[in-house]
Amino acid sequence: MSQWIPLGVTLRDWREDTKNIVRPQLHVDNTDTCQNGAPNAPANAENIWHTVQGELRSRLGERVHKSWTGQLSLQSENEHSVALTAPSRFVASRIEGKYGDLVRTLWAGHDARDVEICACADVQASKPNLTSVNSHVHGIAGSPSSRSRGARAGSNTHFQPVAVSSTGAPVGSSTGSSTGPSTGMPHKDAENRRDRFTFENFVVGPSNELAFAVARRIASSSECLYNPVLIHGPHGMGKTHLLYAIKAAALAQNPNRIVKLISAENFVASFVQSVRAQGRSEIDAFKASLRDVDLLIIDDAHFIADKPGSQEELLHTLIALVDDGKQILLASDRHPHAINKASERLKSYLCGGLLCDIGACDYELRLRILDRLIERRRNNGYPSLAMPQNARDHLAARINATPRDLEGAFSQVVARLEFLGRPLTLESVQEALAHSRYSSNTRPTVDKIQRACAKEFNISMDEILSKRRARAIARPRQVAMYLSKMLTTRSLPDIGRRFGGRDHTTVIHAVKRIDALRSEDSALNTSIEAVIEVLKG
């Protein structure tokens, strides 16, 4: 209601006078929004969140809201704060960074409580009771706003934050993290991620069976039948896995056995530090730490050989331990003769022991590694994870050589399933690997597949493309269609056109038929794998 300013009174004086006017206060009855009948209780969080979701949809648009903020759900509440949870830590971290302030601003228009944007510990858990104060919720560490809110809430807050890495992976969770809550620093109670490096988790094949057998013998026996032992092979082949497995198994069998596992980097750093100390006691202490052991394991030994001073100390250590009857095991990504900066004496000494080569994985070994990765993923929060046979075959056929590359590609595929909510199918695997470094350098074409199948089944290209339906011709043609669907990104109609103008339904029938026959006909499956190996090479 407008008011007139009296004549002769300035605007400033009038404003000062009106400040002293006592205005009537409206009484608001909050009994309807009280929780459990308590006075001044917060408003119903579920109703507020429904309203805020509508406002987010209006502000951000339907597509952005559905992709990000629409994935938030109301997890729990108390008198100080409300927890909104996302299905994964990646999604929670992304929403916190891009839309966190907007969510809190909209919520503040309806309720004074603080808002925590969290990642639910169990992605597949059903929505818990909103009034539960023991909800299994993990906050996002490192956020200034979340730290300040936690400080204000004090001991009454029930949300226990944990660190989240830049990739959205949980840090400090019970699934194998080595960092503690909120700090990102190592936590003494957290499970070491190296704990999964055991003999039981190592997948054995023709390329690594010798190294595996020798590793088991070293772990179980104190007899030094071969000394020193050098496991060598390209990076990512499982050498470090074997070294940690040996240490764990040796200590489990004999806790009194003195086992030391040291990386080349720590070896060189400790040696340099002892020399710079310019004291005999420091050098003696360094030597004693390496030589007063029953089993010495050194990873990445080629790195030590690149340092002239350190490689001399390594050679003296090897000689001393061998003379004392102590076992030595080293891992290197090269054969001793391929370590250019190593002295001839060191090369000769290493070659005088047992050399175990770990070669490239074959197709069958990669399939078994995939099975192990799927099993591990199921045991760590995704019990319903399933990969179709054709997607599994495609992933094993397309990855270059090393188990580490295969694990990285598998993680990339599963990440798309987790973060984008897409099903795990052959198409999603192909999409995930389309522009990935894990895919083959040269993608096979339909023409190459046709020629490889024609050669494997001893028929001509004209017969592959012909209308003949004799089994000796039709079966190789179906195999070629199957592999074209599995190994290329061509559509079904496009593949049909390249097989003499056939309909896409013919391609679908061929894919289903060959997929079923692979488990029934071992000879046919062997021929298909032979074609895949040819296309890879």
Task: Summarize the topology.
Blueprint: H1 11-19, H2 45-60, H3 62-67, E1 73-77, E2 81-86, H4 89-108, E3 114-120, E4 137-138, H5 144-153, E5 163-164, E6 170-171, H6 209-220, E7 229-232, H7 239-253, E8 259-263, H8 264-276, H9 280-291, E9 295-299, H10 301-305, H11 308-323, E10 327-332, H12 344-351, E11 354-357, H13 363-379, H14 389-398, H15 403-420, H16 426-433, H17 446-456, H18 461-465, H19 471-487, H20 492-497, H21 504-517, H22 522-536
Parallel strand pairs: 2-3, 7-10, 7-11, 8-9, 9-10
Antiparallel strand pairs: 1-2, 3-4, 5-6
Main attributes of the structure:
single chain; 11 strands; GMP Synthetase, Chain A, domain 3; 537 residues; 4 domains; four-stranded mixed β-sheet; Helicase, Ruva Protein, domain 3; alpha/beta; five-stranded parallel β-sheet; 9% strand; Rossmann fold
Please identify, by name, the CATH architecture of the largest domain.
3-Layer(aba) Sandwich
Sheet of most strands: 5 strands, parallel
* Annotation, overall tally of beta strands: 11
End-to-end distance: 86 Å
The percentage helix is 40-55%
What does the overall shape look like?
flat
Number of helices: 22
Number of domains: 4
User: What portion of the residues fall into strands of 2 or more residues?
Assistant: 5-15%
CATH topology of the largest domain: Rossmann fold
Helix-strand category: alpha/beta
CATH superfamily of the largest domain: P-loop containing nucleotide triphosphate hydrolases
- Strand line-up of the largest beta sheet: 8-9-10-7-11
